[in-house]
Structures are given as C-alpha cells and as structure tokens.
Design a protein that fits this description.
This protein has three helices and no strands. With 101 residues, it is mainly alpha-helical.
C-alpha cells in the first residue's frame, strides 16, 4: 500500500503539470482521483485496524498486540493526512473565493 505522503506528492506533480499546461479538465479529474484514493486508503486502513483488533480481542494467537498497535497508528496517520488535505483544500477554496478580480 502506498503511503499517503508519496501518493500526495505524485498527484501534486500530475496536477501541477496539468495546471501549468492549461489543462483544467484533467487537473480537476486528477484532483478528484487524489481525494478518492486518499479516502479509500483511509477506509481500508481503518477496516484493517478494526479487524486486527477484533482478532486480538477474540484471542487469535496469530495476531500480536504489536501488529494491532502498528495498524492502529497507521490508520491514524491516514486519517490525519486526509483531514489535513481536506482542511487545506477548503482554505484554498475560501482564499480563491475571496479574491477580488
């Protein structure tokens, strides 16, 4: 699974390319793809963390506390990254909206 930071960097480069070359439709679809992938990765990570925690709680010997904690922290990182991207996008949108043309 790709980390949210490297995914964001790749998508940023793609969007930057589209914007500098005046291809607004493609940049919008690329931006949409970034959001969708970020949300999917966050959801998958959260589900995996919940699944491991449930297995550990039920006494499954194949799942260690270390694995549960690592997956929970990874899920938290994805969630924080998603929140930060959303917050910054809304801030940028508000800044653009308030520009005087």
């Amino acid at each position: 699974m790709t980390s949210p930071i490297s995914l964001a960097q790749q998508q940023y480069q793609q969007v930057s390319h589209y914007v500098t070359h005046g291809e607004s439709t493609n940049s919008c679809s690329a931006f949409k793809q970034v959001f969708q992938q970020l949300i999917q990765m966050t959801s998958q990570s959260e589900l995996q963390a919940q699944h491991l925690a449930q297995q550990f709680a039920l006494g499954d010997d194949t799942v260690s506390l270390h694995e549960v904690m690592m997956e929970s922290q990874k899920s938290l990182v994805y969630l924080k990254a998603s929140h930060e991207v959303t917050k910054r996008c809304l801030s940028a949108y508000q800044e653009i909206w308030n520009m005087h043309v």
